[in-house]
Specification:
Blueprint (H helix, E strand, L loop, with lengths): L3 E3 L2 E3 L7 E5 L5 E3 L7 E6 L7 E5 L9 E6 L9 E3 L3 E3 L4 E7 L4 E8 L1
Parallel strand pairs: 3-5, 4-6, 5-7, 6-8
Antiparallel strand pairs: 1-2, 7-10, 8-9, 10-11
């Protein structure tokens, strides 16, 4: 893998991006932080029977860490999935993504599948 040069600056590419997928089922989850947690996906793929929360703790989080929450078509139900207080996934086929900026979690993007 070679380095990339942008506007005269030499940037070394990140060698490995570690990913993990958590199947949330019909439950709230807390995202685990720390080394090797570059990209985490929380997947809701079953009917949601009550309000659910994806908790984004700051302890152990590393700058640049990304968490994506997906509420697939099978995740029916009238209850919402609260994504760390940043975004509420209220209907099926929605997703949202947040990143840690070194001090707090921030909403990066969201949309429909």
């Amino acid at each position: 893998m070679s380095a990339l040069k942008i506007k005269g600056k030499l940037l070394a590419p990140k060698q490995v991006i570690s990913r993990s997928v958590t199947s949330a089922g019909d439950a709230s989850v807390t995202v685990e932080n720390g080394p090797g947690k570059d990209l985490q996906i929380v997947d809701y793929a079953v009917p949601i029977t009550a309000a659910r929360t994806v908790t984004l703790a700051t302890a152990g989080a590393e700058k640049g860490q990304v968490v994506r929450v997906v509420r697939r078509a099978a995740a029916t139900g009238a209850s919402a999935v609260d994504f760390g207080g940043l975004k509420s996934l209220t209907v099926v086929s929605q997703w949202a993504e947040a990143f840690y900026d070194g001090a707090a979690w921030a909403l990066l993007s969201f949309g429909a599948l």
